[in-house]
């Protein structure tokens, strides 16, 4: 079974930055979908970003221009660089990687934006 291990969350002040990592136990070269989601307290999980194998990443309007997703094929790791963080970005962030016949989620990492 594929495992995804997330890291990089934490407490940051508004305007600060964090980089989330998602290390996979399976090669991401063949992954059909690499995405990030988040879930704030009392809210449903929402899509944040998708990082395709080819072409530009897509982002939710709420994070566009501030977040950047990327893949590192050598390390089988997915990243989410988050800049200019806002209190409304506070949530548990999850990576999601899908291969043919397999759909895996990370365990989640807490991001808290507060002064």
Overall description:
- By secondary structure, this protein is mainly β.
- Helices cover 0% and strands 50% of the residues.
- The protein has no helices and eleven strands.
- It has strands at residues 4-7, 10-12, 18-24, 33-39, 46-50, 58-59, 67-72, 77-82, 91-99, 102-105, 109-113.
- The strands form two sheets. Strands 2, 4, 5, 6, 9, 10 and 11 form a seven-stranded mixed β-sheet that branches. Strands 1-3-8-7 form a four-stranded antiparallel β-sheet, with no helix packed on it.
- A hairpin with a 7-residue loop joins β5 (46-50) and β6.
- It starts with a strand and ends with a strand.
- The model has no long low-confidence stretch (mean pLDDT 95).
Low-confidence stretches: none
Q: How many β-strands, per DSSP? A: 11
The 3D shape can be described as globular
Termini gap? 40 Å
Query: Which structural class should the secondary elements be placed in?
Result: mainly beta
The value of Rg in angstroms is: 13 Å
Number of helical segments with 4 or more residues: 0
Mean pLDDT, nearest integer? 95
Q: Topology, pairings included?
A:
Elements: E1 4-7, E2 10-12, E3 18-24, E4 33-39, E5 46-50, E6 58-59, E7 67-72, E8 77-82, E9 91-99, E10 102-105, E11 109-113
Parallel strand pairs: 2-11
Antiparallel strand pairs: 1-3, 3-8, 4-5, 4-9, 5-6, 7-8, 9-10, 9-11
């Amino acid at each position: 079974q594929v495992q995804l291990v997330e890291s990089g969350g934490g407490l940051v002040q508004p305007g600060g930055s964090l980089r989330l990592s998602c290390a996979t136990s399976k090669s991401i070269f063949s992954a059909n979908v690499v995405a990030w989601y988040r879930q704030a307290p009392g809210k449903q999980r929402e899509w944040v970003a998708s990082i395709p194998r080819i072409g530009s990443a897509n982002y939710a309007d709420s994070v566009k221009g501030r977040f950047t997703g990327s893949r590192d094929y050598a390390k089988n790791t997915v990243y989410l660089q988050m800049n200019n963080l806002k209190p409304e970005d506070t949530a548990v962030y999850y990576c999601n990687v899908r291969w043919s016949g397999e759909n895996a989620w990370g365990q989640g990492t807490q991001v808290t934006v507060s002064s």
